[in-house]
Design brief:
about 750 residues; alpha+beta; Immunoglobulin-like; seven-stranded mixed β-sheet
Length: about 750
């Protein structure tokens, strides 16, 4: 330790030394004080070593940077040890030591935020225990302390009060330790409500500090690398602060309840009600902040929030999900980021997703009805649900994206996945909304000649496709961001039974009983023209043209006339229409028992100036058989492919504090220059993600950059890179490196 470190440590020790006071109204005379106003030195507590590293290894908290500052990070329901040194020989006969734990601005025993226990030679049945584990010489004791498995999860202060007999009279001393003890949830402890009986999964859902959040659509699933960084400097403190703020600094037993805590986290990660972490923005105008696409990790966001105490601008669902994963894993809640493709947003509680068509204009009426997002990200958090009937524990949905109010606040969950799967929408919390997101029926409506709403069609399998999370291998992300099969786990079966199965239909019926339902009037006219042949455009790269195509067959013995319209639109990933790329009307006579096809070509020039940052598009086809009034509507959401970044490391491994080089490259697929280019890098050796300004990239040019990083920590680490420019958004690349000491 250098001289500065010794001086700092000495100052801390002096701060922690005895403050003498009356304890339990002991009678102490002025003669007991020395000239400096302190007691004469008797055998009382002189110092306390929190044994941070020893405890951290036993509690699986050794990765937390808070340890470097001398703080202790432990998990509840499991003993930890402290080394107590006395100024003289410790005598159990003449010493009484009381250990006091306090948390919050106004600790109260009745709220569980002020706890005291007497040091004993044997364990007791008290909630908190402090037991002499061993003697470390005549003047020192190793003490085992065990907080209960339901104690408040927070930063605690520890105080040791010594009562010593001197000349037949008691003296009281107080030792205040200058460092905090961060007590976390403990998913390894059977008595904790977050206990997960598959320890291997905790290598992912607690201990993995990097991963991926999936985006795109259900036919083309891409992965965005994300650095959760729950062990980084200041992140545990930020996480505990968010929870404290969500409880309005009312430190109480609820702060040890994962149900209440996870609901608070869902509220505090968005800024809509309580000045939480992140401002949502889906406008594509990010003046005054950063595009949500530019973030690749949680650390920068949480540090900025702690620095300013103001919401950070801006985020979308995948950023909210990444922050929730960071906070949950930091405080010991097993958590995974989840992406639901074709995710419904039910605005009226009907548990159906309703689209209203103006058939004269052959398009969807805007501004009314529900929406289907190409993808939506939320979180699953593992816990026991003592507030629900038996059978609803396990994974629970927690969603911090501000969509609908719950109990007057923008919060969602925890919602039992088992309740969602069974359609038990009367279970707390927000089950009808989550059920609709994954298993609502899509209903197309229009008006008949009497202006009564009728149902054109019902699609029972359009909602909730390929629900995805990272495979729980506990490892950094593999560089497979386009072909995601090797890194993605499909968890759709956790949320619902197979589509169209009897159990799936029964769950929908069960959910609809608690919903605000409509009484559909079905269009029961003649249906003798069969439609099909709709092309899925899943492999179109930005810069290429694509075709919209429909086939039809007249199954009747009469002549039919088909009229309709192709529409291609750019949309946000939330399904909101941004602009029309191309419209094309068609009319075709159909002889009896014959078929045909119609198509529309969309060129690069048609869409390039109207493309959104997610490169999301929608194709709509509306067709009407004039003789019978039969109507067919069809929609398809898709995303144009963007190139992935190639991230290569020249050496297979590296050592701490030894530089290594990354080679980053991609091919510009456009016939124009890329301007205002930036690169965000998250990797070992960087305290947080770092932004680099990049020169323009020429049309059709292969761009290459070399980057040198110096790792500070050992282990398998992820290097993630995100490239943005005016023309292309959110190009991602990732690789991993094994770092040794």
């Amino acid at each position: 330790m250098n001289a500065g470190g010794r001086r700092r440590r000495k100052s801390e020790d002096q701060t922690a030394r005895m403050i003498v006071e009356n304890v339990n109204n002991l009678d102490i005379d002025e003669d007991d004080y020395d000239d400096g106003g302190h007691f004469d030195i008797d055998s009382h507590v002189e110092s306390v070593d929190l044994l941070p590293l020893e405890n951290a290894l036993a509690h699986r908290t050794e990765k937390y940077d808070a340890l470097r500052e001398g703080h202790l990070v432990v998990r509840r329901g499991q003993p930890f040890y402290i080394l107590v040194r006395f100024t003289g020989k410790f005598s159990a006969k003449n010493h009484s030591v009381r250990i006091v734990f306090k948390t919050g601005p106004a600790p109260r025993p009745g709220k569980g935020s002020h706890v005291q226990c007497l040091l004993s030679s044997k364990s007791s049945q008290q909630d908190w225990t402090a037991v002499i584990a061993s003697r470390q010489g005549p003047n020192a004791l190793k003490v085992s302390i065990c907080p209960p498995a339901n104690c408040i999860v927070a930063s605690w202060r520890i105080v040791l009060e010594s009562i010593v007999e001197r000349n037949g009279r008691p003296k009281a001393y107080k030792y205040i330790h200058p460092k905090h003890i961060h007590i976390l949830f403990n998913p390894w402890c059977k008595d904790d409500a977050v206990y997960l009986d598959k320890p291997d999964l905790l290598n992912e859902y607690i201990l993995n500090d990097s991963g991926a959040i999936f985006q795109g659509n259900y036919k083309q699933i891409g992965a965005k690398p994300w650095f959760y960084g729950q062990f980084e400097d200041g992140i545990l403190e930020a996480s505990l602060y968010c929870i404290q703020k969500g409880f309005n600094s009312n430190f109480c037993q609820s702060m040890g309840d994962p149900v209440r805590t996870s609901r608070i986290i869902s509220k505090m990660v968005n800024s809509s009600d309580d000045g939480g972490v992140l401002v949502g923005n889906w406008s594509e105008d990010y003046t005054g902040g950063k595009s949500p696409m530019s973030w690749s990790g949680s650390v920068v966001i949480l540090r900025e929030y702690m620095k300013t105490k103001l919401p950070v601008k801006f985020g979308q669902c995948f950023v909210f999900s990444g922050i929730v994963t960071t906070i949950c894993r930091a405080v010991g809640l097993p958590c995974r980021s989840v992406t639901n493709f074709a995710s419904a947003h039910d605005t009226d509680g009907s548990v159906t997703i309703d689209f209203y068509w103006d058939l004269d204009q052959k398009e969807v009426l805007s501004g009314i009805g529900d929406s289907i997002w190409n993808f939506h990200c939320w979180n699953d958090v593992w816990m026991r649900r003592d507030d629900l009937p038996s059978g609803y524990s396990g994974w629970q949905v927690v969603d911090s994206t501000p969509q609908e109010r719950s109990d007057g606040m923008f919060q969602c969950g925890p919602t039992s996945l088992r309740a969602v799967k069974a359609g038990k929408c009367d279970m707390l919390y927000d089950c009808p909304f989550v059920f609709a997101e994954v298993n609502a029926d899509k209903v197309n409506w229009t008006r008949d000649k009497e202006k009564q709403w009728i149902v054109l069609s019902i699609n029972t399998d359009a909602i909730g496709r390929n629900i995805s999370t990272k495979i729980p291998d506990g490892k950094p992300l593999k560089p497979e961001l386009t072909n995601t099969d090797s890194i993605r786990q499909d968890i759709t079966a956790d949320y619902k039974h197979p589509e169209e199965s009897e159990r799936e239909r029964l769950s929908v019926i069960s959910a609809s009983r608690s919903a605000i339902t409509k009484k559909p009037v079905y269009n029961k006219g003649i249906q003798d023209v069969q439609f099909g042949g709709f092309l899925h455009r899943d492999n179109v790269t930005i810069g290429e043209q694509f075709e919209v195509k429909m086939t039809f067959t007249n199954n009747s013995q009469s002549r039919r006339t088909l009229q309709g319209k192709f529409i291609c639109e750019t949309v946000s990933y939330t399904g909101e229409k941004i602009g029309v790329v191309k419209r094309q009307e068609f009319s075709s006579p159909l002889a009896p028992a014959t078929g045909g096809e119609m198509s529309m070509i969309v060129s690069y020039a048609d869409y390039i100036h109207k493309l959104t940052e997610h490169a999301a598009m929608k194709v709509i086809v509306v067709a009407k058989v004039m003789e019978t009034g039969q109507i067919h509507v069809w929609q398809d959401d898709f995303r144009l492919r963007r190139p992935d970044l190639s991230v290569e490391i020249t050496s297979a491994s590296s050592r701490t504090w030894q530089p290594f080089e990354c080679r980053i490259s991609f091919l510009n697929p456009l016939n124009r220059n890329l301007t205002n280019c930036t690169m965000m890098v998250e990797g070992p050796g960087l305290d947080a993600e770092k932004e680099f300004m990049i020169a323009d990239v020429g049309a059709g040019e292969t761009w290459i950059a070399l980057l040198t990083l110096t790792p500070k920590k050992p282990g398998r680490r992820q290097v993630a890179v995100t490239f943005n420019c005016d023309q292309l958004k959110d190009l991602n690349g990732v690789t991993e490196i094994n770092i040794t000491n």
